[in-house]
Amino acid sequence: MAAYTGTGQKGGKEMERTGMGKLVMQMAVTIALLGGICAWNLHRADERVAAMLEQGGVQLPVIMYHSILKDEARAGPYVLSPAALEADLDYLQHNGYETVTISELVDFVDGKGDLPAKPVLITFDDGFYNNYLYAYPLLAERDMQAVVSVIGEQTALYTESGQENAYWSYLSAGRLVEMQESGVFEIGNHSYDLHDDSVRKGCLKKRSESVEEYRQMLTDDTHLSQTYLAESGLTPPQCYAYPYGAYSDETEDILKAMGFRCTLTCEERINIISPGDPDSLFLLGRYNRPSGMSTTTFFEKALPGEGS
């Protein structure tokens, strides 16, 4: 009869505990290594940012607004009150920020101009009529500038109908001309008919499309918007704001080939743009301004150094 070794139920539990202990130790080591790698990557990223700033790069926060309405019942992620917008603009000026235009940014990266010490780009997406009603006078009173990126089909629709309602109307071509000629607003492209996720999400390529089919679709839609705006008396936009922030691998090259100098995403991050580096104006990150957050709290997140 074999001798009893003591490796019955009790021994099995001890082995299980030992195995579990090794697993926990391995997991701890893995987490530590990953933490070290992340810290190293963040350090390297900080070094790259510092190097870009030393070479003349400029930190550029971009703020993204949508609809501006007095009705508090409509407040939400993409609807802000005029009072909150006014507080935002006053905060920026009080803290030394100066608004810049797309044209000034293009000149800067082309080595043809300088930027203020603390530049900020203010953007409005979609082209709601209430931007004219509320944002336009607030900006004009403060000698500030912004870019409004319009959906071409909506501009055409409301140009034809002549309807102007703060809740649901979009800007007509006539209003856009007025806003552009004032020097307060530049006009951006937000697609002609891609701000609709029933067929595709924004500028995303469908899985069923070939690259050539996608290129033709995006080129046709963008050309339609550019042509309509130009024929309406507006300067053809240099900047394209991606509907829903959605784009595909091919999108940037297509828009660059069409002459665009800047694209706007919905990714929340501070940008660094550099003289002699036109590509630094592409895929700019932006901070969406929602309701329900104080001006100070929002800008502690959206402006470099404000939250430190």
From TrEMBL:
<keyword id="KW-1133">Transmembrane helix</keyword>
<dbReference type="Pfam" id="PF01522">
    <property type="entry name" value="Polysacc_deac_1"/>
</dbReference>
<dbReference type="GO" id="GO:0005576">
    <property type="term" value="C:extracellular region"/>
</dbReference>
<keyword id="KW-0732">Signal</keyword>
<dbReference type="GO" id="GO:0016810">
    <property type="term" value="F:hydrolase activity, acting on carbon-nitrogen (but not peptide) bonds"/>
</dbReference>
<keyword id="KW-0812">Transmembrane</keyword>
<feature type="domain" description="NodB homology">
    <location>
        <begin position="118"/>
        <end position="308"/>
    </location>
</feature>
<protein>
    <recommendedName>
        <fullName>NodB homology domain-containing protein</fullName>
    </recommendedName>
</protein>
<dbReference type="GO" id="GO:0005975">
    <property type="term" value="P:carbohydrate metabolic process"/>
</dbReference>
<dbReference type="InterPro" id="IPR002509">
    <property type="entry name" value="NODB_dom"/>
</dbReference>
<dbReference type="InterPro" id="IPR011330">
    <property type="entry name" value="Glyco_hydro/deAcase_b/a-brl"/>
</dbReference>
<keyword id="KW-0472">Membrane</keyword>
<dbReference type="InterPro" id="IPR051398">
    <property type="entry name" value="Polysacch_Deacetylase"/>
</dbReference>
<feature type="transmembrane region" description="Helical">
    <location>
        <begin position="23"/>
        <end position="42"/>
    </location>
</feature>
